[in-house]
Amino acid sequence: MSTSVDFNMYTLLALFLFCVAVSLNSAAEFSFASYYGDHMVLQKAPERAVLWGYGANGSKVIVSLEGEQGSRAEQAVYVQNGVWRATLDPVKAGGPYNVTAVQQGAGKAQVTLTDVLFGDVWLCGGQSNMAYTLSQVINASAEAALASKYPQVRIFMAALETSREPLMDLPRVEVPWSVPTAELLAGPAFTHFSAVCWLFGRYLYKTLGYPVGLVSSCWGGTPVEAWSSTRALQKCGLEKQEKLDISFVKLPGTLPVPPESLSRLMNAWKNSVLWNAMIHPLLNMTIKGAIWYQGESNTGYHLYKYSCSFPTMIDDWREAFHTGSGGQTALDFPFGFVQISTSAKSSKSYAFPILRWQQSARYGYAPNPRMKNTFMAVALDLPDGRSPWGSIHPRDKQDVAYRLTLGARAVAYGEKGVAFQGPFPAKVLLDGDSLNVTYTQAVSVTNSSSVFEVCCTQEKKPCNSSSTWLPAPTVQWGRSYVQLSVSGCKDVVSGLRYAWRDWPCDFKACPVYSADRELPAPPFTGNRWMRPDGQDDW
Ligand SMILES: *[C@@H]1O[C@H](CO)[C@@H](O)[C@H](O)[C@H]1NC(C)=O
Ligand SMILES: *[C@@H]1O[C@H](CO)[C@@H](O)[C@H](O)[C@H]1NC(C)=O
Ligand SMILES: *[C@@H]1O[C@H](CO)[C@@H](O)[C@H](O)[C@H]1NC(C)=O
Ligand SMILES: *[C@@H]1O[C@H](CO)[C@@H](O)[C@H](O)[C@H]1NC(C)=O
Ligand SMILES: *[C@@H]1O[C@H](CO)[C@@H](O)[C@H](O)[C@H]1NC(C)=O
Ligand SMILES: *[C@@H]1O[C@H](CO)[C@@H](O)[C@H](O)[C@H]1NC(C)=O
Fold this sequence. Notes:
12 helices; 11-stranded mixed sheet; Rossmann fold; 24 strands; Immunoglobulin-like
């Protein structure tokens, strides 16, 4: 090991696994770990890229970098417990480079990675809407044909695997590091490269102008618990494995199911199994940030715990990637997520709105005090009743990815003047028979009879989803406010909510958008008498 690592619980765990891996791999050839390959993107400066691989115990390994201007960055490290690891000096964006590792001494051997670029590496995680491939999106063939125009956006995909114990390396790779082609991107439904991940990288590349590496590690139909470490689950009281039964897996509108067999999918529902096999192995790679599209499976599984499980998973990933990379990956790396879209137009269930709310730790927007350095792409206005993959899988992934990119530009790259959040209420005033909702920004409003609703109670008391909610039609609106009629409420107006339905509006036709109509207002629920943060509202 070239870098000293803090001796925390994590390191001890990693060392333990190390030994397990070595015993399995005692005749390991000299090589890089599974997710280093030709055409890859390594994290650029100011971070330092971490490289590791297997070798003969005690051997010296020299790692060097050859670019068009000659060779540089020779580094000598030693193989310990069958593994060597080098942390490169910072390299500015660009390339191509060849990265060569030479094992000296008796077991003399050499491995070279060619056509390596330095840029920003983003990890893409989640369930089927992240696994959803480019061949399934609107305008699929036109999108695939653009692939070859982006040779500096490189892709890698981990294969679907589960493990009871955290693994040091990926058991299998689905798509090795590749220069994008139409064929690679337009692979079969749900099994090849993620459309949201690819489009995010492509849009990001347009603004960054330097290489982007995309690492996709996701699995359709899976809950957040499978992607969380035991440590993270413990913090939310979820460490005890629930008896899984098939009804958990059945999601409204999920037809046809992704191609995994049901038993394989059930296995992927177990606590930490995907964290162990598909995330933990990646911890040593230096990354810039992560995006995530998941939550549908949790609308029927630990729904009310999601405001704990999801933010806690983010914190835990951050700490683990930071430790695994020897401090190179930022401890607060940017984390973007998609607020789940819609599943069934006729659904009367509140599971989707409740899950959306939990995704933001019950703030309704991101970043927020619980979820720092995060960004959220709202997607509830992109329903798709005609999707051949079931309405839970809307085909418009371009807008989803675009909204994520806006968040990344503003939050991860600090680009000034990039709006990425839709309008959110700043103030709600009750004045006789009307409510005046003032937004944080200028709004574009269309008439709505029932997307806003008020909770009507006989006495002053907080409301919840099962209280009586009545439509509050829009009466008029101004630059940054909407006036609602509450004349339907004969008792006390005790709460207000917006778009609190599985499928609140038609495609891009919700009542409230940013003034330029780019960003939909996120859904919210508010109590007049008690806000989630415990404060009195309006
Ligand atoms: C990398 O190695 C390949 C194959 O040996 C060679 O053709 C190429 O010129 C090298 N590239 C750099 C940047 O050194
Ligand atoms: C490598 O060396 C360590 C001690 O440094 C030893 O415990 C381990 O068994 C060795 N592994 C192999 C594969 O020789
Ligand atoms: C699909 O293509 C049409 C025609 O070029 C275009 O108007 C539309 O915006 C595209 N849709 C998406 C989601 O990119
Ligand atoms: C990461 O690096 C550390 C330190 O070299 C090592 O103990 C660990 O096994 C590596 N792999 C993972 C997946 O943590
Ligand atoms: C609503 O409040 C805003 C200020 O927050 C104010 O400018 C506007 O006139 C009010 N609208 C009505 C109808 O009272
Ligand atoms: C909104 O719609 C209602 C009913 O269709 C209509 O009475 C009202 O005038 C409309 N309001 C605005 C501001 O367009």
